[in-house]
Amino acid sequence: MLIKRLLLNDRGGAIVLALIAAMMVIIPILNLAVPTSSPFHVSTFTVTLLGKFLCYALLALSVDLIWGYCGILSLGQGAFFTLGGYAMGMYLMRQIGARGQYGNAELPDFMVFLNWDHLPWYWLGFDSFAFAMLMVIVVPGLLAFVFGWLAFRSRVTGVYFSIITQALTYALMLAFFRNEMGFGGNNGLTDFKDILGQPIAADTTRIALFLSSGIALITAYIACRYIVTSRFGRIVVSIRDAESRTRFCGYKVESYKLWIFVFSSILAGIAGALYVPQVGIINPGEFSPLNSIELVVWVATGGRGTLFGAIVGAFSVNYGKTIFTSFSPETWLFALGALFVIVTLVLPKGLVGLFNRPKKSESAHEALDNETIDKETIDEEISGTKTNSAEAK
Amino acid sequence: MNILAQAKQALPVKDPDFSKVLNGFGLEKDNFGAPVDTSKRTILYVEGITVSFDGFRALNNLNLYVDEGELRCIIGPNGAGKTTMMDVITGKTKPDEGTVYFGQQINLLELSEHQIARGGIGRKFQKPTIFEALTVYENLELATASNKAVWWTLTKSLSGEQKFRIDEVLIQIGLKELRYKNAGALSHGQKQWLEIGMLLMQSPRVLLVDEPVAGMTGEETEKTAELLLSLAGKHSVIVVEHDMKFVRSIARKVTVLHQGSVLTEGTMDQVQNDPKVIEVYLGE
Question: A238 to chain B: which residues are within 8 Å by CB?
Fold first, then answer.
């Protein structure tokens, strides 16, 4: 029943999920079981690249949930992604132990370099994987809660909300650039060695990370579908379309916005945590406002308000970026800008809008019923207008 | 005051099942904590309300009393303060002075919009505002009086009783056959009815209806008049309208607003023959 509700009427979503699942089966086999000499071998570089795309897709999903369904255009979603990434990075830093440049088992290299003599309090506990994973959820979630509570309670909406989220991510970037913050300054956190006792660069670890990203994406997708097909989801859509009407229906709009915003920021945090071990570095550059804007472009390109469109957009734009930057890196930003303009003008429903026909009613029978009714009401309207014009005369 | 005497005459027969309907939907849980005390028959007390926007007095010492089950029409020239008055009652605008009581004990000025809506005051906007991306059925589902906390809406669907109530309202507003149609595809009149239906789903004690027939065809206007008349008695209905013919067809008691306060009150005939009203409408 639940599966039916989640995936029925969502053909596009089912196809995208099936493709991801297929990829999760095929890629590990082609990477681990097929010898390097074979033309079918998939390099670890590609596995990592695809794993990165899966994280981006999860991030795009989180944006689509709030932007596509609730109309909250957050231009600071990258901040939650990066915070999740930092939480994971801190765990990975603590795993380096005495293998750093300075051989200090107590302190990460950059702290030794800054002549710090003890670990700051906010680094405590990050030796534990479980604690770090908790922080991956708690830190972005808590920031979103406090920020959202203040913003939504004051009824900050639309473009004003977008601007303050930009300011949020920009402020975080400036703060994290400072060495005194204790997060490695502009170098960020890097030189990771192990994750859960496994060497981070090993093929099997890469595959495990790739699979984890895929599982996270699929789980998040189903969770999002659950949300948008529930009564909560319909209320959220109503808020997007007619906020004050929803309020006069007796809903506390602020709470709805707040919780969907918090949930979405947690998804972004998880995406960041999976991203960091695969790329091997996290630095304040990830907070850059440009990143957050770029990911809105992914969602717009894929098709907003469909969930699976966000995944399609994240994959296609990033694949395009990989291809493009390999032969003409300096023109990529122009291409991205042009893409956004073209999508806005020509494809308001994004790439998936090309394939996704408008949804038919529950059954053909009902559709037929509706049509007959339509004719009747049209007739009524025509006769009504006639009466009116007759009166006017 | 002769208002009360007049109101008594105008008051239609009360629907005996009214309180049952309310109880059936567990509205008390979401209520103001205290039941609405209408032992004096008056359900809404608006007293001495003044609202200023940048020095302009939109409402000026406005007094208005609405009885339970009454159908009241409010007319007045543009800028008379009709919409502002609705804003004050529904909690959208806080007045500079005055009090608004729902029943004898509930002070509406202390409550926010969603609390007032849950407590039983429904509002229909001038422009039809329905949720166009959802179907007719889903629109009513959203408006249903039920637990409106986040967690409930995420995990629970409506009870059979509530679904039954949706069907009832669908029949009442004449959109039963269009239940699965997207609300955005409805005609203007149908949208207005849907919005009234959404108000009904909240099982309100008081309905505020802002210009229900603006832009409607003659036939649609008639249907709307019928619908509103059928609601009076079960609910107190306050209709703000420009269309005098329409007001005449439904009005029992009319209040004329002018420059933010009540100019006169009475039956349609009394009001139309009132020299003050003639002066305001036709000029000196």
Answer: 131, 134, 142
| Alpha-carbon gap, residue A265 to B267, rounded angstroms | 58
Residue B268 is part of a domain; what is its CATH number? 3.40.50.300
Say yes or no for a CB contact (<8 Å) between A245 and B141: no
Instruction: Return the residue of B nearest to A380 by Cα.
Output: B219
Inter-chain residue contact A238 with B198, CB threshold 8 Å: no
Of the residues B112, B180, B221, B222, the best mutation for testing chain A's interface (the one with the most A CB atoms within 10 Å of its CB) is B180
Mind telling me how many Å the CA of A338 is from chain B's nearest CA?
Answer: 30
Three-state SS at B206: strand
The pTM is what? 0.80
> Which tokens hold the place of B55?
């020095």
CB–CB of B218 and A238 under 8 A?
no
A223: closest chain B residue by CA: B154
Q: What total number of domains does chain B contain?
A: 1
Distance from CA of B124 to the nearest CA of A (A): 9
**Domain containing residue B85:** 2-282
Interface of chain A toward chain B, CB-CB under 8 angstroms: 227, 230-232, 234-235, 237-238, 240-242, 244-253, 255-256, 259, 361-362, 366, 369-370, 373, 377, 380-381, 383-385, 387-388, 391
**Distances in whole angstroms, Cα of residue B217 to Cα of each of B185, B193, B249:** 17, 13, 15
Residue with tokens 């010898």: A35
Neighbours of B275 (CB within 10 A): 8
Confirm if A282 and A276 have CB atoms less than 8 A apart: yes
Q: Which string of b and e fits A254-271 if b means at least 16 CB within 10 Å?
A: bbbbbbbbbbbbbbbbbb
Inter-axis angle of helices A308-327 and A203-229, nearest 10: 140
Using an 8 Å CB-CB cutoff, list chain B residues near A248.
Answer: 90, 113-114, 117, 122-123
φ, ψ of residue B198 to 5 degrees: the values are -65, -35
pLDDT in tens, chain A (393 residues): 677 777 777 888 999 999 999 999 999 999 999 898 888 999 999 999 999 999 999 999 999 999 999 999 999 999 999 999 999 999 999 999 889 888 888 899 999 989 999 999 999 999 999 999 999 999 999 999 999 999 999 999 889 999 999 999 999 999 999 999 999 999 999 999 999 999 999 999 999 999 999 999 999 999 999 999 999 999 999 999 889 889 888 899 999 999 999 999 999 999 999 999 999 999 999 999 999 999 999 999 999 999 999 999 999 999 999 998 888 888 888 888 898 899 889 888 888 888 765 544 334 334 334 433 344 444 444 444 433 444 443
Q: Which residues of B touch A148 (CB under 8 A)?
A: none
CB A145 within 8 A of CB A255: no
